[in-house]
Structures are given as C-alpha cells and as structure tokens.
Design a protein that fits this description.
Helices cover 53% and strands 0% of the residues. The longest helix has 11 residues.
Length: 68
C-alpha cells in the first residue's frame, strides 16, 4: 500500500528556499544553522524559533511573516 504524503503542500520556508535555488544544507550554512534545524523548520514552521526564522529570513530576503 502506498503511503500518503502527510504534508502535500510545501511549507513557505521550503518554497522560498527552492525559489532561491538553495539546498537545505546550503541554506543552513548561509544562515549559520544546523541542516536539521532547517529541515524541521520546513516541516513545522510554527515550532521554529524566532532566531531560526530570522536567520532564514535574512538569507532568503523574505520577511519573517511570509515564512510562517
């Protein structure tokens, strides 16, 4: 049986990262974050810390409000 995707809509963080043509690892390096931090922020942006959102926002050039 095929597993359904629990999150079929990409998060805003993932969409912005992909629009910037960055991998999770490249974004993490530029934002001075661990790749796992970016990975989990993409999957649960409502649980991401303000520091994480601010760092991702800075690198992607997107307001924090647009990442939630």
């Amino acid at each position: 049986m095929a597993r359904s995707n629990p999150n079929p809509i990409p998060s805003r963080i993932r969409a912005a990262r992909e629009a910037a043509n960055l991998t999770i690892v490249k974004l993490a390096v530029k934002a001075d974050l661990a790749p796992t931090t970016v990975y989990f922020a993409e999957r649960a942006p409502h649980l991401a810390s303000e520091r994480t959102l601010a760092a991702v926002s800075r690198v992607l050039g997107v307001p924090v409000e647009d990442l939630r």
